[in-house]
Amino acid sequence: MNHIPEIELQSGDAIRTLQEAKLKHTLDYIFQHSPYYKNLFSKHGILRDAVAKIEDLSKLPVTTKNDLQENNWDFLCVPKREIVEYTSTSGTLGRPVTIALTEKDLQRLAYNECISFACADGHQDDLYQLMLTLDRQFMAGIAYYEGIRKLGAGLIRVGPGLPALQWETINRLKPTVLVAVPSFIIKLIEFAKEQGIDLNKSSVKKAVCIGESLRDDNLQLNTLGKKIAESWNIQLYSTYASTEMQTAFTECAHGSGGHQHPELIIVELLDEQNKPVASGSVGEVTVTTLGVEGMPLVRYKTGDMARAHEKPCACGRNTLRLGPVLGRHQQMIKLKGTTLYPPGIFDILNQFHEVKEYVVEAYTGELGTDELKVHLFTDGDLKSVEEMLKAAFQSRLRVVPFFEFNSGDEIEKLQASGKSRKIKKFLDNRQ
Ligand SMILES: [Zn+2]
Fold it and tell me: How are beta strands 206-209 and 235-242 bridged, if at all?
């Protein structure tokens, strides 16, 4: 069975026509059923016929995570008895948001994940090993589960962590695809090396990587991606998704950004003034969900900064592709005129085995501008490590932060500072 939707192979014009028809349907539904949007649109004097084309979306106000937190249940378009599943955002920043799904939404989610796995060369003969949680209101877990079932493939639910159990299962059941966080795949590789397991003789051929990106802004493998590829000859697929959008952007084998599924979502990349950025520029990923029944969203600003790639892909799909998330909007750092995000900085630091631990600190300089300091612990020669880092920052980012060498204990204290119990690699001390 072929799981590539026809529309993805059609022309840009055909995709736009389909999206505008779906958008019309979505807005008709929202104007009728969404308490939040009815109120918002009436406050702004927006009439139903204001939006016909995708460009017209810019006439509508955006929705932020804060709006969703403050008015969570006003987004619900159906009576509560029609909710079949309550999922929630992880709540790493602020209060978690509940996203409620109807039966139809669950089916949409399964369809979304099925065509996403198909995009990542998934086939009904594949056997997937899921190395992630299926509980704790985690939407992605059920999405993968249902998507794989719809694809007609087999699956094994091992859950997160436990490299020994993962390997025991790989050896016993011979999965062909892993679904995992890439930094956990590094742990699997380390475990295999310690135990003398020959990685390239295992049954695993592919890994669908979730949660963290494998690529840099040029769509080349980043340090994390390279570390996996160096040791393990498997095909890697990066994905991007969030609970709020109930839709995934998954790479094909050409690894040139996550493919948009045009029948499920409209994407805009917006600037600070909520205007679309120039084609190919970095903007905030802003989505309008299509076909969602429970809690549809219009122009929802995800906070994720990325670049869109619009040229047709070598796989034959003409859909837009999203490059890796370069960082969160609120973590944007303007250093001497250059825009940076913490993940890009981490990626450079991760490249050097001499850098044992680090914390990146942004703060406000005397002139009110952003400044950047990297606190780090190294077992190498301080002078040569600093020279090496300066050269790497200069060539990759064109700007060089300050470096401060600390002991391992000092770095540990910095990483544990702040309210969150999670280890922090980025400290934002800007005013
Ligand atoms: Zn492609």
Answer: parallel
